[in-house]
Amino acid sequence: MRPPARGGKVSPPRKRTGFVRFVGDLLLVLFVAPALIFVLYRVVPPPVTPLMLIRVVEGYGLSKDWVPLARISPHLQRAVIASEDAKFCQHSGFDWEAVDNALERNAAGLSMRGASTISMQTSKNLLLWPARNFVRKAAEAYLTVWLEALLPKRRILELYLNEIEWGPGIYGAEAAARHYFGVSAARLTSRQAALMATALPNPLNWRPNAPGPWMENRASTIQARMNSISLGKSGPCS
Length: 238
Known about the structure:
Elements: H1 14-41, H2 50-57, E1 63-64, H3 74-84, H4 96-107, H5 118-127, H6 134-150, H7 153-163, E2 165-167, E3 170-171, H8 173-181, H9 190-199, H10 213-226, E4 231-232, E5 235-236
Parallel strand pairs: 1-3
Antiparallel strand pairs: 2-3, 4-5
């Protein structure tokens, strides 16, 4: 038995001290790791994402071909911004007006939608798993703060367009454009780009090259909105 420390106090057990130190180190790693990964992804294309691995286990293939933003049609860049996040260039990762609207829909018993920005989706696609719960959403929000702080908007959009799921085993604009329309991502027309953006909410079931009436109408709406999205010489938000 350890003798009492000076003054009659018993020194804390070493095992407890070691555990506390381990927990502290683990929390530090979890806090810093996303920043280090995003700094790396600022210059290096991500090799694979958690969703890709999950889909492979589920029996889907993996078709992915990274291309720089300059080789992705401006039509598609405008289409996904018009469809997924019209305020992409104005916000810092979160569209608070959309969040308020989503909460109001939820309070009214309707489905929550429209609050996830391109930055949030990129954070989720790069590092998280597909789920709809508070833990995943909280992690997504935390990662989005790092993403917006460390990467320019141009790179965020480039990552998004190259990693997003566009069909069973199909990831990124280049693989999707070739699969659905037989062209490179650079050669997508305005209509093809709008149809591809339309399929994003449900990529496992909706096909840009075989749209139904709802997809056709939605694509027309996106095309009309695309004209209001301006792209600078060096990309979006410039």
